[in-house]
Amino acid sequence: MFKGNMVALITPMDETGKICLDSLKNLINYHINNKTKAIVSVGTTGESSTLTKKEHVKLVLLTVKISKKRIPIIAGTGANSTEEAILLTKKFEKSGVSACLSVTPYYNKPSQEGLYQHFKKISKSTSLPQILYNVPSRTGCDLLPKTIYRLSKFKNIIGIKEASGDLSRVNKIRNLVKKKFFIISGDDSTALDFMQLGGDGIISVTSNIAAKEISKICAFVSKKKFSKARKINKKLIKLHNILFLESNPIPIKWAAKKIGLIKFNTLRLPMTQPSQKLKKIIKNELNKKNIEITKKNIKKYNLF
User: Fold this and answer.
1) Which of 3, 30, 37, 161 is catalytic?
2) Rounded to two decimals, what is the model's pTM?
């Protein structure tokens, strides 16, 4: 289930900052139409840090409802408090989510033993499948392979989204964990190399606007047609990098609005609109038509 192209979905908001239901429906349909394998709802890209807990839960449940079991939904449930992460996870018991994505605790910088005990306690509190999420650049702590190995022994800890940017981690983790443990890239710019080294897929930011292309890359990798995958990826490399010139999800949300996938480009403080310089860079890259969706053909997806 958790292989190939999975999207770290943006959270569409209206001009007042509330969830934009029409845009959410369109995004979900867009990903189903373009063979995305799963949707991560309310992860970092989904602005989990600026949503209230009530909104967080509501948005995940809305995503499950709208998807109507047409695509697996992974709920973002991470927190820097173990008890808070458990409370959030329990909100999705019997909700229809396929798994939870739980980021390492941020800001408080726990030790490896602290990380182990954190995820162990979450695992023991729920029957929901758990995917660990390691992103040191954001959290200030690094979940190391030996700790991942210890955690992989728990039946419902089924994989990891590894976003350290260190490609050597693929083999280090793979050599330690059981075969069925998923190792998923969290970095678009290195995802193809990550998968070629043995990773199972990507939880992608770029896929928010290039789902068809990312899905094709993953499909070619699964068939070991790496040259074909690399040909598509070559067209996206610059876009991968541009989308992180300012903090995620600032660039990707503006790009999604630019091509018509969402109605509004609303962000919540402290996130602000991209600079004029970045807007120009994104616009120029989108005009190259390296992704299929443009304003000219957006209607084919029956959006809005």
Assistant:
1) 161
2) 0.95
